[in-house]
Fold this protein.
Amino acid sequence: MANIRIIKRRIRSVQNTAKITKAMEMVAASKMRRAQQRVLAGRPYSEKIQEVLADLAAQYQEAEDEVQPLLQKREAKRIEVIHITPDRGLCGGLNSSMNRRTAAFILEQGVPVSLVTVGRKGRDFVVRYGRDVRAVFTDLGDYPSLIDTLPISRIVIDDYSSGFSDGVYLAYTQFINTMVQRPVVRKLLPIEPAPMERKQRVGYIYEPTSVAVLGNLLPRFVEMQVYHALLESIASEQSARMVAMRSATDNANELIEDLTLTYNKARQEMITKELLDITGGAQALD
Amino acid sequence: MPKIKLDIVTAEQVVYSDEVDMVVAPGAEGQLGILPRHAPLLTTLQPGELRIKKGGEETYMAIGGGFLEVLPNKIVILADTAERAEEIDITRAEAAKARAEERLKLSSADLDLERATAALRRSLVRLKVAQRRRRAGHGGPLAGAGP
C-alpha cells in the first residue's frame, strides 16, 4: 500500500518536471529562431565591410602611410581574450565546452593573458581559477543591440592601441546548426584583412582620404565582429538549451511510462492479494 | 531616366533597399548628391540627413554616421544608425539633446568632449528629420520598407 502511494507521488513529480522542461524547450526554440534571424540580418553589413576593408588594406600596404594602430603587428607580451558565454545554465555541455576551449587556449600561451568576460558562466569560471579579469559584462539579455556591445569593443580597442595588450582574441561558440555548436577562439586584433587581387579592386575615389576612411572603418570592423560573436553565442545557447530540454522531456516521459507500469503491477498484485484474503477468509468461515 | 539601386544596411538589419533616382548624403566633406552612373566612391558620412528621391517622392532619413560606397550601378550605405522620419521618437530625441547639452555645459574634467558633441549632433539631426515629416504632412508611401 505504502509502496503504491510512493510510486504515484513519484509519477506526479516527474510529470511536473516534464511539463517544465517542455515549456523551456519551446521558449528556447522561439528565442533561437529570433537569434538566428538576427545573425542573418547582420550579414549584409558584415560582408560589405569586409570587402571594403580588404580593398582599403591592399592600398594601405602599398603606400607606407601613417600607422594604423589596429593593423599593427607586435610581438605578443600580453594578450587579451574576450570570453563569451551565456548567463544561464541548463544548456547541455555548451558552457563547459566553451570554458574548456578558452582554458586550453590560455594554457597554450607563453605570455600573460587578461580576460574580458561576457556572460555569468564564463565569469564564474575565470574567477574560480584566479585568472586576470580585465572587465566583466553580464545581463546583456537575449536580444542585445549593437550599442550594448560597444563598451566591450571599446575596452579591447583602447587596450590594444595603448599597448596594454599585443593581441586580442575572441572566444565564442559558433553556431553551425541546431545540433552542432562549436567553441572557437579567433583572432580579433591586430586585424588581418583578407588578401585581395589587384584586378578585383574597384579603384574608388576616397573622401576625404583613404587613410581617413580606413581609420574610421577599422574600429567599426572590430565592433561588428564582437557583436556578431555575441549573436552567434546566443543562437548557440538557445539551440543547445532546446536540444537539452527536449531530451530531458523525452527522458521524463520514458520514466513516467516505466513508473506507470510498475504502479499498475503493484496495484494488480494488491488486488489479487486482497481477493485471496477474502476468499481465504470465506473458506475459513465455512 | 536611369535609376540606381540603393541599399542602406546597419549592423543589425537592412533598413532600405530600392531603386531610386537620386541620393543626397551628409558626406565627410559636406553634402553629397549622387545620381546614377556616378564614379566609384567611398566616403565616411557624418551624422546628418539623408534625402532619397524616387519618382516624385522624397524620403528623409536620419543617419548617425557611417560609410557610403558608390559602385557603377549601386549605392551601399553602411550606417551606424538609420531611422526613417516617421520612426523617430521626438520626445526621446529631445531628451537626448537636453542631456548632451547638459553634459557639455558642465564640462567636467572626465568629459569625453568628442562623444558628447557627437551625441548632440545626432539628436539635432533626428529632430530636424522628424520635423520635415511634420511639415510635409506625411512622408508618402514607402516602397521597399523595413526588413
